[in-house]
Amino acid sequence: IEDTKTTAEELAAEFGERIRDIVLEVTDDKSLEKTDRKRLQIEHAAHLSDKAKLVKLADKIANLADIVKSPPSDWSLERKQQYFGRAKQVVDQLRGVHLKMESIFDDWYARRPQ
C-alpha cells in the first residue's frame, strides 16, 4: 500500500485482517529516507512471517522480470544494477521459504543488467 492511497482499513474491509496484516508486514515506511528504507527491508526480511516472505519473494521476482523485460526508461545501468543487488540481499534473507520461487528469482537475477 506504500505507493497507493489505500488504507489498512480499506484492505481489511476488502480482503480481511489476515491479508491486511501480511501486506503491512512487507510495506516500507515511506516517511524514512530511501537508504534507510532499503537497509531496513534487508534487515527485516529474515524476520517476516512465512506468508509475508512469499509475498516479498513474489514481489522481487516480478520486479526483476519487469526490469529485464521492460526497464524504466529513466533508470541508468547503475540504478538497475543496484536494484538487483538489493533485491538479492533481501531474497537471501528469505531463503528456505519456497525453493521453486527462489529458483525463479535466481533465474531472473542471472539475467541482471551488466
Structural notes for this entry:
By secondary structure, the protein is mainly alpha-helical. 70% of the residues lie in helices and 0% in strands. The mean pLDDT is 96.
State the share of residues found in helices, binned by percent.
over 70%
- Indicate the overall shape: globular
- How much beta, percentage-wise? under 5%
Largest sheet: none
Determine the mean pLDDT.
Answer: 96
Q: Please tally the β strands and state the result.
A: 0
Task: Find the structural class using helix and strand composition.
Answer: mainly alpha
> Cα distance, first to last residue?
31 Å
Low-confidence stretches: none
Taking all Cα atoms into account, the compactness measure Rg is 15 Å
| Number of helical stretches of at least 4 residues | 6
Briefly say what this structure is.
Helix content is 70%, strand content 0%. It has six helices and no strands. It has helices at residues 8-15, 17-26, 34-45, 50-69, 77-94, 99-110.
